[in-house]
Amino acid sequence: MKLAALRSALRLRPLRGFAVKSSTDTRRRSSSGISRDMPSNVEIKARVSDPALFAKMAAELSQSEGTVIRQHDTFFHCGRGRLKLRDLMDGSGQLIFYERPDTAGPKLSRFSISPTGAPASLRSVLSDALGVTGEVRKQRRLFLIGQTRVHLDAVEGLGDYMELEVVMRPDQTVEDGQQVAEQLMEKLSVSQESLVTGAYMDLLLQGRAGE
Fold first, then answer.
1. Interatomic CA distance for residues 69 and 89, integer angstroms
2. 7 lies in a domain?
3. What values do phi and psi take at 76, rounded to 5?
4. How far from chain centre, in Å, is Cα 100?
5. Which residue from 112, 160, 176, 188 could staple onto 51, CB 3.0 to 4.6 Å apart?
6. Is the pTM of this model over 0.90?
7. Distance (Å, rounded) from C-alpha 101 to C-alpha 167?
8. Has residue 93 got a pLDDT over 70?
9. Helix or strand holding residue 135 (H, E)
10. What is the CATH number of the domain that holds 91?
């Protein structure tokens, strides 16, 4: 399968089943009644029991060994939505604000991103001004399969997970994206039982609450 060009926009917040995410004002409504705008993603997240096997299957489908990316996300207190600073560990980063409804089924998430060349100093200022909710550190291996970004994540304090991000074309509906994701789940042997709800920050906070 040929590789798709890597899109620069960042997509966040998967849920059990599928999540729909977008970066601009809502303009369309799919047949399911879920509003979405362009560009947007359909996403899923799942636990991975054998990361070596998953990486092998993803490499075969993408015809590449993938790209390794280190990320350090810091979440700050925010009056609405979520605000996080993503340090890409190479001297660059992204300040990201996003919000999404806490409902079951496909979710629409609006967000805005501002790049930064000084993530460490920006983290210090935002920490002093807003306070920190939590942090997520991970090593991500990115594969491109058709119109889907496949992430194999080793998350500090959580373990191994995978994310599928179907980058939607303007002429596609939410249902089209779900079908693409379901077909790729089957090819990668991702079971429904392994799907998880929430972002890594949510899972980390839930784990701490249970200690």
1. 9
2. no
3. -115, 155
4. 13
5. 160
6. no
7. 20
8. yes
9. strand 132-145
10. 2.40.320.10
